[in-house]
Backbone:
């Protein structure tokens, strides 16, 4: 996919030779658990990956744009551990692929 830079942003950073577009890859990682015969989504992670072909400032960057979970995991005491492990494993995976920056937006 390609993200077109809007005119105001391009004008604001024109002195830095800001690119007019950024190529990226979207990924959605979700975790299901079968609870009483029903597949339930327990965890969702939506990311934008910008590889080494992108210009700065997005070069080799990952943006976590959505991260959410629900409390239905069984056994319940494993919930935090599993969710932390999923996020850390993804970040380790992209680090091994050459990405060096990750941004996570958090709602204030």
Residues:
């Amino acid at each position: 996919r390609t993200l077109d830079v809007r005119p105001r942003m391009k004008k604001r950073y024109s002195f830095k030779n800001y690119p007019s577009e950024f190529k990226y890859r979207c990924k959605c990682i979700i975790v299901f658990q079968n609870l009483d015969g029903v597949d339930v989504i327990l965890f969702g992670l939506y990311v934008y990956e910008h590889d080494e072909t992108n210009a700065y400032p997005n070069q080799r960057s990952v943006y976590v744009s959505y991260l959410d979970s629900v409390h239905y995991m069984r056994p319940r005491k494993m919930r935090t551990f599993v969710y932390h492990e999923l996020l850390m494993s993804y970040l380790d995976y992209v680090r091994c692929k050459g990405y060096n920056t990750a941004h996570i937006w958090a709602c204030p």
Summary: Residues 32 and 38 are 10 Å apart (CA to CA). The chain has a mean pLDDT of 92. DSSP finds two helices and six strands in the chain. The helical segments are 7-12, 79-96.
